[in-house]
Amino acid sequence: MIQLQSVQLQLGTKVLLDHVDMTIHPGQNWGIIGANGAGKSSLFKLLLGEVHEDSGTCAIPSHWQIAHMAQEVGSTTQSAIDYVLDGDEELRQIERDIEAHQDDGEKLATLYGRMETIDGYSARSRAQRLLHGLGFAISDDNRPVKDFSGGWRIRLNLAKALMCRSDLLLLDEPTNHLDLDATVWLEQWLQAYPGTLLIISHDRDFLDNVINGIVSFEGGKLISYSGNYSAFEKQKAERLAQQSQAFEKQQERISEIEDFVRRFRAKASKAKQAQSRLKELERMEKIAPAHIDSPFSFRFPLPDKIPSTIINLSEAAIGYQTESGDKVLADKIQLSILASSRIGLLGHNGAGKTTLIKTLANALPLLKGDKVEGTHIAIGYYAQHQLEALDLKASAALHLQRLSPKASEQEVRNFLGSFGFHGDRAFEVITHFSGGEKARLALAIIAWQKPNILLMDEPTNHLDLEMRHALTLALQGFEGALVVVSHDRHLLKNTVDQYVLVDHGKVEEFDGTLEDYQRWVMSQEAQEVEAPVEPVMGDSAFKKVDKKEQRQMAAALREKLKPLTNQVKKLEKDIESLQATLEKVEQKLADPQIYENPGPELEKLLKEQAQAKQSLEEKEELWLEKSEELESLKV
């Protein structure tokens, strides 16, 4: 086991660990959380022996093999698969020994026996599965490491760490450069990992699915919590909810989330997605107090104008231009983005999600078809390259002042303060800003310009848990349209109400939840792996269901569900009618003249408004109940 006893660790004059005690038993999976700069990475360096405690003791069993995901990006002509195979040091040592003892038959027999024992003959196929799971193509196996971009080299570092047959695995932000598909695959791999696992991560859903304990950096101490990240939030929320001085801020956050729930329910049209979303939002209400001490609390300002149709693509083709011609990733696209659209893009890596975002943002030309933008469109486009486009010699404040020369210094200070740039920090040049600080500044620049559509490609990369939470709340309150690509499932579940699948050359609506998408991804992976494998069992084990029998079963199920389906459809019509009635009444109530001489007409309208609201709420509750019942019977 790992044991820290009264450990003191300092970085310069800053105390990171203040006489800390902690015990981690073999096979435990721990998530390490805390503010940026709290000491999470330094704790890993301590466990790796790269730094030493100033006092106390840090003990790890001497026979343990430790694997960690390197953050530095190397450049080598070595092939990707050989680079990953280097993660298995024992394998590589046996290979070297075999090469050195070609004339010693007895020694070779022993070495080949050891190779068999460590399953070395399947090492190459294991490395290929790791690469494939993390999103690499088969053709990437023999590409030199130096040919990959920085993000893909980090993936290679992750694959190399997973290749090691370790007792202790240390992963520092493993999902930062992964897409959703690779993140889901990594979760499954880690769930089966038999050793001790410590993960630093700002992806709350990833932590929920992998770890069974939280270690939180709090004021130089390591506080342990049992359960996953959601359990930690509940425990912290219960503790902070008892602090009376925090009550007002808690209620403000809860009120905002409740308002978003109401707005969502008023436009909910897909039962399965609606139920999934409402459950997430109800959970957010309960854990709101856990984030009351967050240093971030920003909003996207109300856009000046919001056209009803913001962007429309018709018979469109997206891709990129090469010397040999156009490379089309998706064709015949029909996509309308309305003022009310909140879209999450799903699809395999390389299928065209980022290309679609870039095309919508006018960063790439449309290869074919028509693209019509609404009048007064104001695009807020967030992409990773924008961090590189920041002026390192300018301050955060100067970036905003260049956009709005007439803005007062106090306005700029107040705005940047909500993004965590307090006091003089807002006026320091950003040369030495961390990746997270630069990401926050890029978001601040977008918000400052009052966009009416947000196009966001992996906006949570480099952001810590509190900033991700603040971004989720800000996107919930955003009044314009939203199109987002993200591997952060918590953000997707709480900010979008429609999924669009970009895959196999098509862009089409995905009618389901994120859980449905994950199942779809896994089924696709299974088909790819299992397709070449010939069945070894008898034919009876693979007997197909008779098509006639299949049709009869489907017809019987439809007949069984018909009364419930009709109820749901009738409720949807009732809701639509009540919404129209309420809208008419509220339009009349918006007329100032009715308040000049209040009388029976005003009283009648107020009564109608109250009745319509009550009826609408009752119908919506019943619709959700019946829809959930219908979905459960379909499964």
Brief write-up:
By secondary structure, the protein is α/β, with parallel strands linked by helices. It is 46% helix and 19% strand. Helix 3 runs antiparallel to helix 4, helix 10 (247-267) runs antiparallel to helix 11 (271-287) and helix 14 crosses helix 15.
Structure report:
The protein is an alpha/beta fold and 635 residues long. The chain folds into five domains: 140 residues, P-loop containing nucleotide triphosphate hydrolases (Rossmann fold, 3-Layer(aba) Sandwich); 73 residues, no CATH class; 49 residues; 214 residues, P-loop containing nucleotide triphosphate hydrolases (Rossmann fold), CATH 3.40.50; 80 residues, Helix Hairpins, CATH 1.10.287. 46% of the residues lie in helices and 19% in strands. The chain is built from 21 helices and 18 strands. Strands 5-6-7-3-8-9 form a six-stranded mixed β-sheet, with helices on both faces. The protein has a six-stranded mixed β-sheet with strand order 14-15-16-12-17-18, sandwiched between helices. A hairpin with a 2-residue loop joins strand 17 and strand 18. Helix 10 packs antiparallel against helix 11. The chain is globular and about 105 Å long. The chain starts with a strand and ends with a helix. About 3% of the residues have low confidence.
